[in-house]
């Protein structure tokens, strides 16, 4: 029997490099920095929101999110508008161009991932998702 935490540590040892490869692939294929992608995904899921709220949702610093929003705005993918609930914290929202760009990037990723998925057992993928979701929920409930 292995030391407690050894198998889970091995999971994180695989996840780190896998995540970094995925980030590089997204940036190289779509020409979209990972922070911008995270902002677009979050806005697509929650609708117009503030930079601080995006930071909390993404578990990223407000400053990093602001730089990503500024980058996305410079590309025409998001815009800001007045926030009726707060005078200084504007709302950030996707533009039509941002929605289309995100759709195109997601479609390309799904095509690429579809080819990889064919080589994997669907039951293994379901088990992987259950474990990763449980870890995510646990780490969200008990941040270190």
From TrEMBL:
Native organism: Actinomycetospora flava
Protein name in UniProt: MarR family winged helix-turn-helix transcriptional regulator
Domain of life where this protein originates: Bacteria
Pfam families: MarR_2 (PF12802)
InterPro entries, per database record: HTH_MarR-typ (IPR000835), MarR/SlyA-like (IPR039422), WH-like_DNA-bd_sf (IPR036388), WH_DNA-bd_sf (IPR036390)
HTH marR-type domain span: 25-125
